[in-house]
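Open question from group meeting: does this chain pack into something compact, or does most of it stay loose? Before anyone orders reagents, we agreed to write out a predicted structure and look at it together. Recording both the input and the output here so the notebook holds the full record.
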Amino acid sequence: MNRTLLKIALAAVLLLSLLIFPACEKDQEPDTPTEAQTFPISAAFAEEDLPDHLELVADEGENAAKILLTAETPVESFHFFALIYEEMDGDEPRFSTDELYELDTFGPEKPLLVNMTFGEVFPAYGFTFKNADGMFKTYGINLSGEDGSVIISEVRAALG
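Structure tokens returned:
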């Protein structure tokens, strides 16, 4: 029963995302890292046998999933938070945040297992860290509308 509800919810997210977010033009670059520019954090559904890890229970709801965040290289000032939708700014959603977890350094030796739910239209959870330029960017965690895998995408959020 829970799997059926999850599949229905995923289908609804896909449909709504197709209606709300316009498709990229063919010559437009997507806002995701390429092979040349590797992103330091990956996200995937957790497997049964996990390495030594940190753990965060962000949500214990009926449709909660276990997501494993892994730092490919160490990152500084890592913050994980709930994303709270505030308003549309043109064609982009804006969020505020509610911090749930913080690490001075998040490294490959200990991934972070997060028990969380996914937003119906927009990401419900996300993270930030200090990049190589000393800047913070905010990323949301959501499901791909193409194959249902976990994806990371940049979002606009007021941190704090």
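Observations to bring back to the group:
Residues 2-21+40-158 form one domain.
The chain has one domain: 2-21+40-158.
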